[in-house]
Amino acid sequence: MSRSSCMKKERQAILLEKLEHDPFLTDEELSEMFGVSVPTIRLDRLELGIPELRERIKNVAQKNYSKVKSLQVKDIVGELVDITLGQGGISILETNSKMVFEKTRIIQGHYIYSLAESLAIAVIDAHVALVGVANIKYKIPVYAGSKLVAKAEVKKAKDNKFIVWVKISEKNVEVFRGKFILVSLEKI
Amino acid sequence: MSRSSCMKKERQAILLEKLEHDPFLTDEELSEMFGVSVPTIRLDRLELGIPELRERIKNVAQKNYSKVKSLQVKDIVGELVDITLGQGGISILETNSKMVFEKTRIIQGHYIYSLAESLAIAVIDAHVALVGVANIKYKIPVYAGSKLVAKAEVKKAKDNKFIVWVKISEKNVEVFRGKFILVSLEKI
């Protein structure tokens, strides 16, 4: 076997491992990890039969939507990749150039807010929940093409009131955090 | 002249006055004011040559967009019907059934948030501004078809930091309020 095909086999083996550990790595992130071009990563994925990120996210999200009580699937912004009702969840939004401020190419805040708000509602163990109060902080501007990972944690659930914290990161750097106070309508 | 045509003339005269005072009254609001049906109001408007609400809002908004420095028109949610840069402004959003939570028919919070956020940015007298922090409160659920009027007031402007309050009402009842702390990028 030639040296380059040997390297390729090795790279593909590690790539499989990496994606098993974190199925939501982008082709760009993988290309940086291995020091190869994005088209090379795409070819690797093709040869290994690994679908593109969007598909991988959708496949995982599909299994989670049935667990959500408080929202319909169409009302969730981003893809829900993990959820434990009443405790927390994770959703992912791939940003694109339609979401930017035209002048700065920075993602408009309300897309990030919507990702956080709908996740905060989705993790609530109630049939209907609405946001009453939200205190939010945008920490770092986000540009198109970034993959935003939102993590929600239910901090308090008492009677018809819930407190949920949502933190959004890009490449493990926190870009947004918010505290949401929600009210379930069914018990009012 | 018959009694009914007399009443109609009178109603149309008052209708003109009402719309001069507040050009953003909906046909539904006018119908309630006069105790006549919505089709009657529409007919009145037709006879008086008054365009429908959407057109009236757009006509007024057109004159305001050129004043905005911090945003492109396409980035503004709702129609900007009044603005004094560095001081405040008013925008209007007509909600529709595409904006609701499927389960409850209540308008999703992030549409209301987006109206507030983009107005808060628009009123800033700077070329580029981003939200840093927002503290918001949803006071009353809003249903599709409602006309939301957002009013923003610049409370503080110092160096590259701005504090803007936004209050959103439906039929003069406050449904949302938010405090936005914004940062202008140009002076950083």
UniProtKB/TrEMBL annotation, chains A, B:
A molecular function GO annotation: DNA binding
Gene3D superfamilies associated with the record: Hotdog Thioesterase, Winged helix-like DNA-binding domain superfamily/Winged helix DNA-binding domain
SUPFAM superfamilies, per database record: Thioesterase/thiol ester dehydrase-isomerase (SSF54637)
Keyword Transcription regulation recorded: yes
Domain annotation HTH deoR-type: ranges: 11-48
Keywords: DNA-binding, Fatty acid biosynthesis, Fatty acid metabolism, Lipid biosynthesis, Lipid metabolism, Repressor, Transcription, Transcription regulation
Keyword match Lipid metabolism: yes
Domain of life per record: Bacteria
Any Pfam family hit: HTH_DeoR
One GO BP: fatty acid biosynthetic process
Signal peptide: none
Identification of the protein by name: Transcription factor FapR
Species for this entry: Acetivibrio mesophilus
Record gene name: fapR
